[in-house]
Amino acid sequence: MYDIxxxxxxxxxxxxxxxxxxxxxxxxxxxxxxxxIGGTDNVTEDNVISLMMRVRRYPLxxxxxxxxxxxxxxxxxxxxxxxxxxxPDVQYHNGLLLEALKxxxxxxxxxxxxxxxxxxxxxxxxxxxxxxxxxxxxxEDIEAYALMTDKVxxxxxxxxxxxxxxxxxxxxxxxxxxxxxxxxxxGGGIQSLSDAKAAAQEADTIVVGNLVxxxxxxxxxxxxxxxxx
Length: 229
Known about the structure:
Blueprint lengths: L8 E5 L7 H8 L5 E4 L7 H11 L6 E4 L12 E7 L10 H10 L8 E8 L5 H6 L7 H14 L4 E5 L7 H9 L5 E5 L5 H10 L2 E4 L2 H4 L1 H6 L3 H4 L1
Parallel strand pairs: 1-2, 1-8, 2-3, 3-4, 4-5, 5-6, 6-7, 7-8
Helix pairs in contact: 5-6, 6-7
């Protein structure tokens, strides 16, 4: 079984976006630690299956980040379940999980399921608008959410999501300083190796997503953070 605590860098691929076989090969043959498949809009069973089958040819851990019940399919190494802790809508805390357990609970392998204490911090992002997340958080708020994730819920992952913009690394540092067991992921706005280095100094794992589709060369350079650790 793969150990997520050893992951420093992962690429996140959106099943609703197109990627050439050449670029996918470059991503999967890089030194990244894992591939996460997930997105906010237009995630369907068909496009998840299609992308999964293309990535499965490579010897990498493969993760499905669950955004709806329709796209949950077998064949992944892990299933990440985001619990958007700073959303006031209970649907994004446990509503999706409840429906998943009702439909699939009898066949779930809970060793493959990773719950994430998910904190959305870019108010302009699609995920913030969809979940109605309260994004104007300070360090005291992040410290409390870190303790909630790590001590109360005892989730294995705390995910700081700035989707679309590079975030406040002071808040990421606060999350890291207040978690003992939870592994801190950071995602959002990484546009260069310099950004990747800054994020990797504060988080346990960085997630590079949109850059794959806008500048594949810069995306591949971000993997070099592993050489610097």
